[in-house]
Amino acid sequence: MTTATEQARNAFGKRGGTMSTGEALAAGIHPRTLYAMRDAGDLEPLSRGVYRLAGLPPLREPDLATVAKRVPHGVVCLISALAFHGLTTQIPHEVHLALPRTARTPSLEYPPLHVFRFSEQAFAVGIETHSLDGVPVRIYGPEKTLADCFKFRNKIGLDVALESLKIYCKRRRPQFQKVLEFARTCRVEKILRPYLEASV
């Protein structure tokens, strides 16, 4: 007969080893079992309300995986997305997360979060889903991220946007038309186009 702990372990295993409290309860894990496993060291807390099976290989992107679990409707953006796609020398000290203008601001003790508000149209396009450490994480693709960086250049710095564009242009098969399409959606085509033409 399988114990409650074994059943819980199996449920975590089926979900890549990481679950939020809400997901664990929905999977039939009793809160008492969850907290007993945490106290026994079978689960390690990644953030308040997010747990991972102990003994798994170290997380590659613990902050992004944690944020995706806590704020599943958000999209990783700007410098965090640039870093993920290898388009910046900046080291993100907080997770940049896009949310629609009307969405509630998440309360997250860890990791540090910087929320950027996007219009409905700009929020909905260019989203890719990547599996990081067994967790599906929504991240804007490289071309959409470049457009966003020019849109938010006053907040992240024009130098960051220009550096990312320069790195992108050196890539094999850059999709300049796609960059301009997203720039149009973000209403920064007139600003981005001259920099793009000078970089090509």
In short:
The chain has 200 residues and is α+β, with helices and mostly antiparallel strands. The protein contains 11 helices and 8 strands.
Overview of this protein structure:
- This protein is an alpha+beta fold and 200 residues long.
- Helix content is 48%, strand content 19%.
- The protein is built from eleven helices and eight strands.
- It has a three-stranded antiparallel sheet.
- Helix 5 runs antiparallel to helix 7, helix 7 packs across helix 10 and helix 10 packs antiparallel against helix 11.
- It starts with a helix and ends with a helix.
- The mean pLDDT is 87.
Largest sheet: 3 strands, antiparallel
Label the overall shape.
Answer: elongated
Report how far apart the termini are: 65 Å
Please estimate the helix content.
Answer: 40-55%
The secondary structure category is alpha+beta
Q: Largest sheet, order of strands side by side?
A: 1-3-2
- Estimate the strand proportion: 15-25%
What is the string of helix and strand elements?
HEHHEEHEHEEHEEHHHHH
The low-pLDDT segments are: none
Radius of gyration: 19 Å
Tally of contiguous helical segments: 11
Number of strands: 8
Overall pLDDT metric = 87
